[in-house]
Amino acid sequence: MLSVEEATHCVAATIHSLPAEFLALPLAAGRILREDLHADRDFPPFNRVAMDGIAVRFAALATNPSEFRIERTQFAGQEPTPQLDPHAATEIMTGAMLPEGTDTVIRYEDLTFRTDEATGQRFATIQVPPPHAGHNVHRRAADRRQGELLLAAGTYLGAAELAVAATVGATTVAVTRRARVAVVSTGDELVAIAERPLPHQIRRSNALMLQAAAEQAGAITQAFHFNDDVAALQQGLPPLLTDFDAIILSGGVSKGKADFLPEVLREIGVQQIFHEVQQRPGKPFWFGQSPEGTVVFALPGNPVSTFVNFYRYARPWLLGVQQPAVTALSGVGAVSAVLAADISFRPKLTHFLLVRLEHSSSGQLLAYPERAGGSGDLASLLTSNAFLELPPEQELFPAGTVLPAWSFR
Amino acid sequence: MLSVEEATHCVAATIHSLPAEFLALPLAAGRILREDLHADRDFPPFNRVAMDGIAVRFAALATNPSEFRIERTQFAGQEPTPQLDPHAATEIMTGAMLPEGTDTVIRYEDLTFRTDEATGQRFATIQVPPPHAGHNVHRRAADRRQGELLLAAGTYLGAAELAVAATVGATTVAVTRRARVAVVSTGDELVAIAERPLPHQIRRSNALMLQAAAEQAGAITQAFHFNDDVAALQQGLPPLLTDFDAIILSGGVSKGKADFLPEVLREIGVQQIFHEVQQRPGKPFWFGQSPEGTVVFALPGNPVSTFVNFYRYARPWLLGVQQPAVTALSGVGAVSAVLAADISFRPKLTHFLLVRLEHSSSGQLLAYPERAGGSGDLASLLTSNAFLELPPEQELFPAGTVLPAWSFR
Hints:
The structure is a homodimer of 409-residue chains.
Chain A: H1 4-12, E1 20-24, E2 37-38, E3 48-49, E4 53-56, H2 60-63, E5 67-74, E6 89-92, E7 104-107, E8 111-115, E9 122-126, E10 137-138, E11 149-151, H3 159-167, E12 172-176, E13 180-186, E14 190-191, E15 202-203, H4 206-216, E16 220-226, H5 230-243, E17 246-250, H6 261-267, E18 271-275, E19 279-280, E20 286-289, E21 295-299, H7 303-322, E22 334-339, E23 343-344, E24 350-359, E25 365-369, E26 386-390, E27 396-397, E28 402-407
Parallel strand pairs in A: 5-6, 13-16, 13-17, 14-15, 17-21, 19-24, 22-25
Antiparallel strand pairs in A: 1-12, 2-11, 3-10, 4-6, 4-7, 5-9, 8-9, 18-20, 20-21, 22-28, 23-27, 24-25, 24-26, 26-28
C-alpha cells in the first residue's frame, strides 16, 4: 500500500498544463496569464505631476525666491503648453504632464496666492521651498521602461495585475482555461436532495460538496449519479472520459460486494495508478488515468473521507493543471501550523486531523484539534476549517509541534 | 483630520445587513445563510454499517466463536430484513442499515470464507474478534439528533455546509443577497483600455481593479466613467444612489481645481462623514452617505492609494453588509504578522507598508517589506500580497514587531 508521500508523487506526475484560451480582460480575473505582457510605454509615460500646486523651474528659485507670476493653468488630460517665462509658474493639477520649462512642483499646502486687482494677474508665494529639483514630479520611466516585462506568463491575475494589464491596453489576454470536472456519486442508498428518503436511504450530499469545492478551485463542474450497477457504470462512464479533464467519484471503491468501480474503470480502459493509501480517513482512495489523459479520482464515499481526499489530492491537482508554474504538488495548499494541544494516534497511518486554524495575536498560526465523530460524521466538518497531516512514524504529537495544515475554507 | 481608527469606526457605523433572497442550494456557495437549518432526521438516520463484512449478534460470539453461517447478503440502499437465526451472520456492505437481530460488524480484513460444496452454503470464520458490541456500527443519532440545529443563520456556506444542507433536503435556502456596487472613475487624462492614449493621457485601470476586487469580495459591480466636469457629475451620479448599495469612486477628491467631487456629492444630497484621514498613502479619502443609505467611498486616484483604501475600508464594509454576523470592522480581514526587517517612517501618519506575507516553516506569518515607488507606482503592487498597518505614534519598527496585516490576494 502506498504512503501519502508516494500517492502525492503519483498524482503530481499526471499534472499537465491545460490549453490557453483568449478572454476579454475583465473576464480574466482569477485566471493564470499565458503570455508575457510588456510595458507599451514608459511607466509613467511622461513627467507626471504628483501634487496639485504650481510648477516652476528650480533654478528660478535662486533669483526669484518669493513670488511667482502664474502664467497659466494646466489640468490633467490637457495637452501641455511650454511655460514661456522661466521666472513664472504654471498652476498645475495631479496627473498632468509637467510643462516644458519647469522641473519642480510645489503643492498648494506650501503656497499662498494673491490676485492683482488692477490686472487680475495671480501670484503665488512659496512658504516652504522645495528641497531639490524634481520635487513632487513622478519622473517618466521611474517605475518601468518601455518594453520591460510587466507580467510574465504564469502570473495569477488578481485586481492589481488586471489594472497593470489595462494600463498597457491588453483588451484580450491569453489565460489557462478552467479544468472540466465530472463529479460522480454512486450508491443505491442515495436519493436526490429534493426526495424524501425511506428509512434505509439518505440524501446525496457528496456530489454537491465536491462541485462546490472544485468550483472554488476554479473548475467547471457537472454532476452525475449512477447506481451500484456494473452495466450502468460501463455505459455511463466512458463518455465522461472524453468530455472532462478529471472525473471525481465518491463511493464504490471499498471491499464491498457492490464496489464495482475499480473493476469497471479498468474494463473501460482507465489504467489504475494506485488503490489504497496508508492514511486515515480515506484509505480506499483509487487513482487512475485513461489513455486520453483524463484522470480519475475514485474517493471513498464516507463524507469526511471524500472531503479530506479532495483537499489533499484533487484540489492541488486542479490548481496544478490550471497554473502551469506549479509543477509539483508538495506544499501546494499546505502551510505550517503549530499544534495547540497534545494528540496521540497509534495506527501506522498518516492521520488527517480536523482542526480549527487561528492566527494568534503573536503572529503564529495555531491549530486547535476538533472533536471528530469518524469519517461518517459530516457535521464534524462544520466546526473545523483545516486538517493537519500527522506522519505515520510518530504516535505522540505534543502541543507546539509544527505540522503541515491543509485549509478548506 | 480623522485618525485611521476614527475613520474605521465611521465606516463601520454605516454597516447594515442587506436583505435576504432565496436561492437553489447549488447556487448558494459562498453566501451567508439567513435561516436556521435543523436535522430533519437523526444523523445518521439508522444504525449504519461502517465497514464491508458481516453483521452478527455480539452475544453469539460466546457460544459460537469461530464459524458463522451466512444467512443472506444485505446491500446499502436495500430495505433491511431481520436476521432470523441469532447464531448466523448477514453479509453486509458499508452504508447499509444494520439488520434487526445483529449489533456488531466484523470487516472482511478480519474474516475468512468457505463454501460448502454440496449445499453451496457459505460460512465466515472470524480471525480477529471484535472488541465490543457495536463495533464498526455508526449508531443512529450518534452525530446529531432530529431537530438539532445544524447550520445557524449567519453561517458561511462552504462546501461542507452545502453538503449538510443537502442532507436535510434544503433544496432552496435563504441567503444574504450580494452587494451592488457602482465603480466610478473620473479624470480627463484617462482613456478607455482599447484606445491608444495621446502622450499626455493614460488608460483607465482603477475601475477594472476596483471591479475585480469588489467582485472577489462577493459584490456585483458595474463600471462608469465621468469626465472632470461638474455638470456631468451632477447628472450622472444621482441615479447611482438609488440603484446601488455603495458607490466607489477614484480620483477627484484632492485639492486640485478639477477635484469637484466633494462639492458635487454634497450638492446631490450625499452627507459628508469625513474627508481626509491621517494615513499614507490615501490621505484625501472622502466618505459619505445618501439619505437612502447608499454609501460613497470617494478614493484618491493614485492607483496604490485607491487600492489600499479599498482593502482597508471598502472591502470590510462589503463583507460586513453581506455577512450580518460581522458588526464591527476591526479585525475583519486583518491578521497579525511579524515584521521581517527594520522599518522607519517619520511622518505622524498611519503608514500602510506594502509587504510580502509568507508562512514560515516554524508556523509564523512573516511580513517582508517590498521596495515601493510611491502611490503612483501601480507595478509595485505586483510583488507584494499585503500591507502592514504601522501606527502613527512610532517612528522605528524593529524586525520582530507584530503588526496588523491586510492581505489582498
